[in-house]
Amino acid sequence: MKTKAGVVIILLTLLWSVISCNKEEEPTADPRDVITGKWLCTEIDLGTNEQQVFEVTVNAVPGNSAALDLINFAHTNGIVRGYFEVDKVSIPKQTVNDMQVVGTGYIISAYGSNWDYDVTFEGVKYECYAGFKKKY
């Protein structure tokens, strides 16, 4: 009888230990990862066809599942706030270093995106198109 009770206690202990083990959940990927990183931007002023090439860094904003900080977007030498929406990034009208910026970026892949945006500086509005190519 003592043997049966001992076996039952051991089995219950093993069962409890298996049930009580918390499996670590796999961290879910941030959907913004497709656009974060360093990008080589080729920007064209649609009014003059002038072209500029510069680097833009895109960082996910912690604590906000949609927000992105675009560092040096539109060659502002500042941080432009954008919002991720599945396959695009919306940039609401905002002022960064005396430049007003507004636009949208369309994510093509993890290696490229296309952007349409306006930059207003000293009262002059520049309509721009840019292609982003992933640096690394």
What does this structure look like?
By secondary structure, the protein is mainly beta. Helices cover 14% and strands 52% of the residues. The protein contains 1 helix and 8 strands; from the N terminus they run H-E-E-E-E-E-E-E-E. It has an 8-stranded antiparallel beta barrel. A hairpin with a 2-residue loop joins strand 6 and strand 7 (112-121). The radius of gyration is 25 Å and the shape is elongated. The termini are far apart.
**Rounded average pLDDT:** 88
* C-alpha Rg (nearest Å): 25 Å
Number of helices: 1
Our estimate of the beta-strand percent is: over 45%
Structural class by sheet pairing and helices: mainly beta
Major sheet attributes: 8 strands, antiparallel, barrel
Strand order of the largest sheet: 1-2-3-4-5-6-7-8
Tell me roughly what share of residues is in helical segments. 10-25%
Distance between the termini: 69 Å
Unreliable stretches (pLDDT < 50, length at least 5) are none
* H and E string: HEEEEEEEE
Short description:
The chain has 136 residues and is mainly beta.
List keywords for this structure.
136 residues; mainly beta; eight-stranded antiparallel beta barrel; 1 helix; elongated
Show the helix and strand layout.
Blueprint: H1 2-20, E1 37-45, E2 51-60, E3 67-71, E4 79-84, E5 88-96, E6 99-109, E7 112-121, E8 124-134
Antiparallel strand pairs: 1-2, 1-8, 2-3, 3-4, 4-5, 5-6, 6-7, 7-8
